[in-house]
Amino acid sequence: xxxxxxxxxxxxxxxxxxxxxxxxxxxxxxxxxxxxxxxxxxxxxxxxxxxxxxxxxxxxxxxxxxxxxxxxxxxxxxxxxxxxxxxxxxxxxxxxxxxxxxxxxxxxxxxxxxxxxxxxxxxxxxxxxxxxxxxxxxxxxxxxxxxx
Amino acid sequence: xxxxxxxxxxxxxxxxxxxxxxxxxxxxxxxxxxxxxxxxxxxxxxxxxxxxxxxxxxxxxxxxxxxxxxxxxxxxxxxxxxxxxxxxxxxxxxxxxxxxxxxxxxxxxxxxxxxxxxxxxxxxxxxxxxxxxxxxxxxxxxxxxxxxxxxxxxxxxxxxxxxxxxxxxxxxxxxxxxxxxxxxxxxxxxxxxxxxxxxxxxxxxxxxxxxxxxxxxxxxxxxxxxxxxxxxxxxxxxxxxxxxxx
Lengths: 148, 246
Known about the structure:
The complex is a heterodimer.
Chain A: H1 4-11, H2 24-27, E1 30-35, E2 39-43, H3 52-66, E3 72-76, H4 89-98, E4 100-101, E5 118-122, E6 130-135, E7 141-145
Chain B: H1 2-20, H2 29-57, H3 63-68, H4 79-82, H5 88-109, H6 115-143, H7 147-160, H8 172-179, H9 190-203, H10 225-234, H11 236-240
């Protein structure tokens, strides 16, 4: 019999499809795991229109089926809504190393040189969760996680 | 309840499609990306509203069936959101007027006595807030910009103003929803909207039209010709190849 902890461990190995340096658990989109007659995984969407939402569900299903989970049910849970506060602290470090400024209220710091002198290029970036900034000190253009 | 949810979902569906028409045509790359992202948010919100509408109706229709298998007279969106894009200033002014209303509406719906409605509203309101910040900023920059951009923004406001009143008109369904604690009367939002719109227009040096005449009809299914043309494009695939999947 598979345990909750085992399911969580497997989910911690599933990368986010758009920011593969984070796992789905670190991103904070797994709201709960219940092991009973069926294995139920509760997933919450990030941004309403994020095209990765369906890929995330597919990746969860693939991972758990590979590990022999048969009766699997994915449930969408929208309340309470996902915000960037659900991203774990360790994930903030990983984002910075990957070149994305982690979410923080106000101006983001440059992920390359750490400067606080940064300027917004566009409130929308390469994916729905990011905006586009430039560092005034080292001139590096970078993505910053939108603070939601 | 079904009709109420259609009104919410059809607004975001129709505006989301309109905004997506800019994809690949915007004046600059950053705006192209911004418009495409806003369209995505709105379509994502539509999935939740129309998904719940289908559940409440209980006839086996899902969000896709409601989006692609209804004709114009079954749509319950505001006339404002079906207005054609015309130029960039026009698109932005439409977005600003909608965002301002939408943000207030969703903030109110977060307190709905129906948990499902409150849940969707809480999910959408932060996105609406982000959209409003951008559209407000651009209205001020373009209105208080060059002589040409100022003129275009003033023209856009004059053309769209007759579609503002519909957002705050109450009908029998609104009264029913308000009595059930599901959604407050649209008219109750008007003072807040007026205050906010006046503030932004003053900063943008744009004058508010004096005549508050309101075109009505969208929320009960009487639409402008433009909606039919839009649906002909949006629904083509599901009409030509019913149940097509990929």
